[in-house]
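Thread: "does anyone have the structure for this chain?"

Original post by V.I.:
We have the sequence but no experimental structure in hand. Need at least a predicted one for the grant figures.
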Amino acid sequence: MAVTKKNILNRLNLVLLLIVGLLIAIMVQLATIQFVDGEKYRGMSEHLTIKQDTIFANKGSVFSVDGSLLATSMSQYEIRMDVVTVKAEVFEKNVRALSESLSKMLGKSTSYWETKIRKGRNAKNRYLFIAKGLGYNDYVKVKSFPIFNLGVYKGGFIAQQTTVRAHPFGKIAERTIGYKDDRGAPGIEGAYSKYLDGVNGLRLKQKIAKGQWKPIGDNNEKEPINGQDIVTTIDVNIQDIAHHSLLRQLEYYNAEHGCVVVMETKTGEIRAISNLGRASNGTYYETRNYAVYESHEPGSAFKVMALVAALESGKIDTSTVVDTGNGKYRLYGRDINDSHRGGYGKISVARSLEVSSNIGFARIIEENFGKNPNEFVDILQKMNVTDKLFLTIKGEGTPGIPRPGDKKWSKNALPSMAYGYNLTLTPLQTLTFYNAIANNGVMVKPSFVKEVRSWDKHVESFETEVINPKICSDVTINKVRAVLKNVVIRGTGTRLYDEDFSMAGKTGTARTEYWKADWAVDKKYISSFTGYFPAENPKYSCIVVIHKPDAKTGFYGADVSGPVFKDIAQKIYTSNYKINVVEDRVPQYKSVEDSYTAYNVISDKEYTSIPDVTGMAGMDAISILENMGLKVNCEGNGKVVAQSLNAGEKLIKGTTIIIKLT
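Reply from O.Q.:
Generated one for you, tokens below.
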């Protein structure tokens, strides 16, 4: 078929139509991408190159009742540089000055820094490492250096902020102060995290080379709100006494672990709490909060609860006579023994507690409640002995007080309970009962936190919470307090007696792991002393529990735990010179305000000479001295007792100062 001019034109027109159609389709598709699906694809692009990064808020600080810093967050900064983003003329004009500034602050020569930065620019490094671990004031200074003062885009300045939790007093009361991280949330930090945590902020970051990210702009998209401060009930002086007294006794008796708690009688505020366990290398540290979580058989410490229940029932009086025989008594096919060879014979109920007669209490409770054991348990329940304390901090152990019908119940259950077996309580639950005896029958809930503050502003107070306004009658209270005083004067606690100051309490020596086959050759005990002081007008109650002391060295409560109790009481007394001065010793919250004020007065000044920081909490002193441009080295934990640069010396920034802490 001949190709005509007309055919050629038709074919050309068809090709043109196809081309036009294709162009139109492409344009439509481009328009769709730009205007219809544009947001979608832009979002995908931004998602791949831009992200919202969390700026973690600084947690609030934790203070003792006298204003000492127990835990705080410290900001640290890592500085990097996007060398590529700086314009050539700006870079060449200022790189020498930047290097000089870095040399003065961070050390190493000016030429070192200039060479490092120039090599980074030649290598097109957009994330050049400069320094890490800088405090806030050093971060501000670096930000003001030449080139860096132009910001992220023009100056290539990149700063990454992190926070670390510091504890100025080291491991003391660590489990009670607590933490909140990947290990969990125990103690005060876990229980009061809603106040301490604050609100995190947001910052946009852009992806750069090698999968790294840098901030976009100098301002945050959402500023973080720092957490509020917690003021605890802990008194660092009493805490220090309790901690070291317990540690000394654990080491002497090579015990497995132990705890001590000191509570203010009227308020239930915990002034000291120490929990120490032995590590594999023989040293002791805070492994668990034994005082709160560890529920165990209290042994003779429970005889006080049994005595109160028996007196309240009206079935006995402290003058009632009980026959303890020759120190051995068989009941329901099982022997009950007293520690005193030959026994005590016929003695009063009061004397039974003073000498801690197992036989005496087994007979008192069995003969008066044996036909109706529920009556005994009901009285314990009315006194809240069977209930948890529902503490604010996590991990409280549950009391184990059996009733008839329970799996643990048998004919021997009731007489065993009378002298502290076949039931379990935590040390803090036991102390709370004794504290109620000292507090004229008012049972108050143990508390660890006094107030929430935001800098110098009051946010919330935590008042004393009454668990039971009257656990028993005043008549019973007075009788039991008289007997507990005599325990120290002429009973099992007589070794603790001191005519210069009065104490009252009860020794406890309980067998543990006695169900194991090898107990006879490897005897294990729990030694305790629980009481209060002064005996007449109690200011503090205290419990000391020591698990598995070396039985060859000693295991009785009066020998092992009693001396810790006496040491704490004695040192609190002697620190106040006179017994009646104890009333004035407890720090009021004004001291915390004074601490804030003292810190602010010093930190707000412009200094040309070294200030006197002795007496200040370590973390406060570190913050102030670093803000002045000094490098600070610390020795010890606690409050400042000495400084290497004398107050009044000329302030030279970059100089190292050594502060010694208690």
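V.I.: this helps a lot. The chain has 22 helices and 25 strands.
O.Q.: and The two ends are 112 Å apart (CA to CA).
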